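Reopening this one. Same input as before:
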Amino acid sequence: MKKYLFLFLLIPSILFGQNDDLRQRINAFKNDLSENYKIKSFNVGGERLGSIQYEETVFSTKFKLEKLEKQRDNLNRNVRFDVYMNIFEFADKDELNWVMKRWLKNFIDGSQIRPGRDSRNVPHANPSIIIIEGNSISILNQPCTQFEAIDYREWRSKMLTYFGSPSSIIIEIGGCEGPLNWTKNAPDPRDRTWK
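Same output, byte for byte:
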């Protein structure tokens, strides 16, 4: 009986241990950016991400990074630049595979993409960086009017530092409405796992 009680008490700590690493990465990411950005967790807004927003997760968080200094956007307005983060963690790799299968059919703003296949455009999609690592998905996107290629590369580097690894799969929407590229560890288009 003591063995079963020990196992019963051990299960929650194992489950919380899965997302402890992810929470530490999120906190380190926020701390790194806190000097230049204000972090907002309520009334965040942002882009419609498709079916992934409605999936059941073990852990998820959403926050907005708002730049403290104003600067000119692509429409020549003086605004504070925004970056939206959505992070989802699933129970295991199988659950993530099922989520990806459904999400790619109802991707950002209702678009459909195919695993491992680049696309010239994704209608109505904002510049985004998506990192799939282990059983978590981290999504960064920013408004189209605030897109700058140099800043985008810096965000990609930060995302890889905090949420990536050598085995991560990376999807990038490198501009307003595309192009969409599977830039790292793209799945084989013939693989049926996410189809």
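So the earlier flakiness isn't reproducible anymore. For the record, Residues 130 and 139 are 5 Å apart (CA to CA).
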